[in-house]
């Protein structure tokens, strides 16, 4: 389901993503794809090594053309951020200085708040190999860093942009447990439906002499009922189970449903002797 | 800072990542890299198209060798999940059925809870082109889906694994606003320090006839103090500002610090006439 779907609202707003001296077109394209997935659209490049436009970037963007087509190129970070009011610098390394350091969740909430109040914001991402210089970080208002494995910290720029874009999208949700689709409506069965299942099963088992010795009957019934009530069954699940028990009850291996066997539907005990 | 750092704890625990019929070695490698970044280490492949091991996967994994080296290959999802007690299926499309659908945050919390209680869990990811079949989804306990842009939903498997791995790491944090490093300690200045700044600035400005007309003096002072108190200044910031005002006050363009100019440090008015 790649590519834009014109029937659905295309989210294209929020902070600018600013890549400082990105080297590989593929990475720029993956960045655009990551942005598009989570509703960001404004990509800015500072001195891309292989120039711009880039066919490699476009193909790696997997149809995120609305991002690629509007990507702008600048010579310096100062120019790339001139119209912005608040910027984050992403960094994996600890930096000297007094700048606040934020987790992605917190940074995304801050960006969302500023977006709602009409402020223009941006997020700076450094070079593939060595990130941002301290001087570049110093141009940002705050630092955002990712909670990576202490012994293996190796996010590439497309991965870092993906995580910030994802948190940006989440920051628009009233409830982070929201999902874009829901399971089919599940109605828990009424107790009457549950007791109906108990009765059917217990009657059929009783007719087969299941509850022996008699002294154990009550305990056996309790255990059976415990098994069937441990997980709250839905009405649908109960009707499925009743069908299963009913099938075991009415039909035999030798006399399946539809046969004229002894317990075949509609047949009567009197017919039995006519069979062989 | 790619690669494992033996001085730091290497996180390698948590749910198994199960890729169903992945096609490109590069994607498998990016999946391993994403996992390693967020402390996951158990990768399982069901029928990788180009076989296993894969040099392309190893190079794309960017030194996540501890994941690549222990990757296991299976013929079927049933075999790949046989030892697990709970699995999620990732899907972007709505599916028919009654399975609970969870957001990544909720799924990660569930996986963390089960991990703490010693249960073995896994997350299923589908093929690059068309994901998981309904039959494959039916083998999982619950569904997890990502809050993507309705009009542009195009996450590749490495991106999907990255997001789940990231949420897994976050689920280990007491507070999602935690960061791996902190800014240098910032002490807000005492009011005495702030008043000291006011006095220095106002005295120096007053000596220069800044507060005119006299009737406006009080208002001008209030405005100046408002500017300096709007953002809570730290002790360090106040000493920097005092140094700035002091420099303006003591030295002139023609008589910079270190010169023997009229107001030069240590010079006395009496010396002035000796200068020209």
UniProtKB/TrEMBL annotation, chains A, B:
<dbReference type="GO" id="GO:0003723">
    <property type="term" value="F:RNA binding"/>
</dbReference>
<feature type="compositionally biased region" description="Basic and acidic residues">
    <location>
        <begin position="266"/>
        <end position="276"/>
    </location>
</feature>
<dbReference type="GO" id="GO:0160206">
    <property type="term" value="F:tRNA (cytidine(32)/uridine(32)-2'-O)-methyltransferase activity"/>
</dbReference>
<dbReference type="InterPro" id="IPR029028">
    <property type="entry name" value="Alpha/beta_knot_MTases"/>
</dbReference>
<comment type="function">
    <text>Catalyzes the formation of 2'O-methylated cytidine (Cm32) or 2'O-methylated uridine (Um32) at position 32 in tRNA.</text>
</comment>
<dbReference type="InterPro" id="IPR029026">
    <property type="entry name" value="tRNA_m1G_MTases_N"/>
</dbReference>
<dbReference type="Pfam" id="PF00588">
    <property type="entry name" value="SpoU_methylase"/>
</dbReference>
<keyword id="KW-0963">Cytoplasm</keyword>
<dbReference type="InterPro" id="IPR004384">
    <property type="entry name" value="RNA_MeTrfase_TrmJ/LasT"/>
</dbReference>
<feature type="domain" description="tRNA/rRNA methyltransferase SpoU type">
    <location>
        <begin position="16"/>
        <end position="166"/>
    </location>
</feature>
<keyword id="KW-0808">Transferase</keyword>
<protein>
    <recommendedName>
        <fullName>tRNA (cytidine/uridine-2'-O-)-methyltransferase TrmJ</fullName>
        <ecNumber>2.1.1.200</ecNumber>
    </recommendedName>
</protein>
<dbReference type="GO" id="GO:0106339">
    <property type="term" value="F:tRNA (cytidine(32)-2'-O)-methyltransferase activity"/>
</dbReference>
<keyword id="KW-0819">tRNA processing</keyword>
<keyword id="KW-0949">S-adenosyl-L-methionine</keyword>
<feature type="region of interest" description="Disordered">
    <location>
        <begin position="251"/>
        <end position="276"/>
    </location>
</feature>
<comment type="similarity">
    <text>Belongs to the class IV-like SAM-binding methyltransferase superfamily. RNA methyltransferase TrmH family.</text>
</comment>
<dbReference type="InterPro" id="IPR001537">
    <property type="entry name" value="SpoU_MeTrfase"/>
</dbReference>
<dbReference type="GO" id="GO:0005829">
    <property type="term" value="C:cytosol"/>
</dbReference>
<dbReference type="GO" id="GO:0002128">
    <property type="term" value="P:tRNA nucleoside ribose methylation"/>
</dbReference>
<comment type="subunit">
    <text>Homodimer.</text>
</comment>
<keyword id="KW-0489">Methyltransferase</keyword>
């Amino acid at each position: 389901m790649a590519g834009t779907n014109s029937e659905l609202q295309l989210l294209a707003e929020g902070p600018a993503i600013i890549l400082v001296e990105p080297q590989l077109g593929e990475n720029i394209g993956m960045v655009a794809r990551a942005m598009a997935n989570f509703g960001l659209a404004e990509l800015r490049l500072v001195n891309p090594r292989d120039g711009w436009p880039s066919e490699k970037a476009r193909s790696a963007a997997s149809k995120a053309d609305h991002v690629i087509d509007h990507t702008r190129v600048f010579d310096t970070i100062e120019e790339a951020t001139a119209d912005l009011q608040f910027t984050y610098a992403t960094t994996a390394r600890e930096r000297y200085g007094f700048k606040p350091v934020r987790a992605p969740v917190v940074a995304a909430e801050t960006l969302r708040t500023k977006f709602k109040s009409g402020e223009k914001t941006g997020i700076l991402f450094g070079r593939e190999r060595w990130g941002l210089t301290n001087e570049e970080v110093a141009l940002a208002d705050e630092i955002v860093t990712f909670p990576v494995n202490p012994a293996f910290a190796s996010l590439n720029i497309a991965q870092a942009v993906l995580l910030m874009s994802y948190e940006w999208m989440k920051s628009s949700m009233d409830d982070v447990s929201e999902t874009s689709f829901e399971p089919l409506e599940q109605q828990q069965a009424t107790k009457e439906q549950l007791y109906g299942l108990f009765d059917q099963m217990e009657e059929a088992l009783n007719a087969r002499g299941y509850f022996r010795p008699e002294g154990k009957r009550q305990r056996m019934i309790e255990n059976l009922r415990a098994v069937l009530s441990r997980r709250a069954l839905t009405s649908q699940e109960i009707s499925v189970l009743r069908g299963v028990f009913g099938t075991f009850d009415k039909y035999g291996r030798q006399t399946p449903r539809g046969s004229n066997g002894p317990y075949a539907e509609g047949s009567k005990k009197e017919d039995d002797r006519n069979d062989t």
